[in-house]
Amino acid sequence: MSRRTDQIRIFALLLALAALVLAADPTGTITGVVTDPSGAAVANADVTVKNANTGLTRSAKTDVQGGFLFPLMPVGDYDVSVEMQGFRRFEQTGITLLVNGVANIPVSLQLGQVSESVTVEANAAMVETRSGTIKGVVDQQRIVELPLNGRNAATLINLVAGTIDTTAGNANGSGDAIQGGTYPGAQAISANGARSDGVNYLLDGGSNRDPYTNVNDPFPNPDALQEFVVQTNNYGAEFGRASGAVVSVVTKSGTNELHGSAFEFLRNEDLNARNFFSPSADILKRNQFGGSVGGPIAKDKLFYFGTIQGTTLRSLPASLNALVPTAAERSGDFSAIKRQLKDPSTGQPFPNNQIPTSLFVPAATKLLDSIPVPSNSQGLIFFTRPNIQHEVQFMGRVDYNTQRNRLYGRYFISDLPQNPTATKSNIVAAAGGKAFRAQNVSGTDTYTFSPTLINNAQFTFSRTHAGVVSAAPFAWSDL
Q: Could you tell me the CA-to-CA distances from 187 to 157, 169, 203, 212, 222 in Å, in that order?
């Protein structure tokens, strides 16, 4: 009885863990049917698929209906070959498999010897016949070639039909409130009218969602992204946690060829046009720089990929203004105010709105030392508040492929500290600082026991930190 109870507990624990993971490996499926010249199904034909970039190879035999199926295949370019005694060898190249996509390959074998071959150089028909999911894919070409403000690839989600950016033009009525505990640059997306917090974000199949506001944690920089898909309707239950859409992001992996990139994006006042209504160009200096590199450690088996991006932003916005106590008001003379002021403790009016300085609260008097004295009777002062940011993103990934096993691990971190702005001479210009950091670790192991039995195990750990740094140039005891 005790052993039976332990088995039930273990089974319940596995179900709970499965519910907590809520992940789906961002792969695709290659499928098709093999027929002879008469259109009859060809059973027991040898089908082999091979990734053109990494050499990952999977093999299977067609069933009695001539069908073959290769699930959980990493996105990328593939070649497919089919062999059967009495027929020419069939080869098709240039097959592009997209994330959560299905490449359907109809194969028609020709009579002849296996030593002879028929080669087709064309992409597979990407007609979805296995599910009714409505989705849109943002491929690498769009990520690289379309303009991106701040190189934030998450903004490209809005390319998919049915999605809108609810932060644009204060569409969600909250303005910048969405940034209350969220990494800057997060997107509040509404899909088909659903709430913006009803979108599930996945990075390499694991959660990439800020639990504070249910928006996205940072995407890796565009040089690190392979592609991503936005499913807006009728998606599978394995994704979960979404009433609006599911965004699945796939990062790049190394290949058999060494590839790298280096970039520098510059924006400053010398290159920017002046706003028509502004007397001078805005003072904004932004540098984004970094690079990526990927290649083989062991050809067809072990690969690496790494990328780093730094973003430095220095801005001095247009002059800000505030109303502060005038020189007369600091001495207790509030006669410029037309409304009659009264003593809150007695209810009696102050003659000619003259308030004895002995009634001033000492802490308020102390604060006046850090507030500039205006040069006008209205109490209006002008000031500037510089903004300085320096963000660093890093991602490293390793992939290992064998005949039966596909294993990969990835680490991603995005760190953005924002120092406070404060001076004892003008606390009106003070601005609190913030500290943002997002980390994501993911690993997947896909093992093929047989052509009909595959196991996929995935682990993801994410951690998001958002803190506030005080800008006060003094402590409470100083007041």
A: 9, 13, 15, 13, 16
State how far the alpha carbon of 458 is from the alpha carbons of 25, 358, 431, in Å.
7, 69, 42
Identity at 192, one-letter amino acid code: N
Tokens at residue 98, please? 């997209």
Angle at 367 between CA 361 and CA 370, to 5 degrees: 160
The secondary structure element, H or E, covering residue 46 is strand 46-51
Per-residue DSSP letter, 473: S
Report in angstroms the alpha-carbon separations of 231 from 200, 244, 286, 418. Answer: 10, 9, 34, 34
204: left (phi over 0), alpha (psi -120 to 50) or beta: left
Closest CA to 309 of 404, 181, 210, 220: 220
Q: Please, which residues bridge with residue 315 across strands?
A: 284, 387
User: In which residue are the tokens 């990493």 written?
Assistant: 74
**Nearest one of 168, 164, 262, 153 to 218, comparing CA atoms:** 153
Rounded CA separation 218/152 (Å): 8
CA 389 remoteness from chain centre: 19
Q: Would you say how long the chain is, in residues?
A: 479
Structure tokens at 176: 């910048």
d(CA 438, CA 428): 31
At residue 83 the predicted structure's pLDDT band, cuts being 50, 70 and 90, is: very high
Distance CA 307, CA 292 (A): 4
* Chain centroid to CA 229: 12
Q: Rounded to whole angstroms, how far apart are CA atoms 466 and 184? A: 10
CB atoms within 10 A of CB 180: 10
The percentage of the chain sitting over the pLDDT mark of 70, rounded to a whole number, equals: 89
Helix (H) or strand (E) holding 97: strand 89-97
* Confidence at 261, pLDDT banded by 50, 70, 90: very high
DSSP code at position 125:
B
Q: What are phi and psi of 178, to 5 degrees?
A: -65, -20
Q: Is the pLDDT of residue 175 over 70?
A: no
Q: Is 425 or 393 the better-scoring residue by pLDDT? A: 393
What does the pLDDT look like over 218-245, one tens digit per residue?
Answer: 999 999 999 999 998 888 877 777 888 9
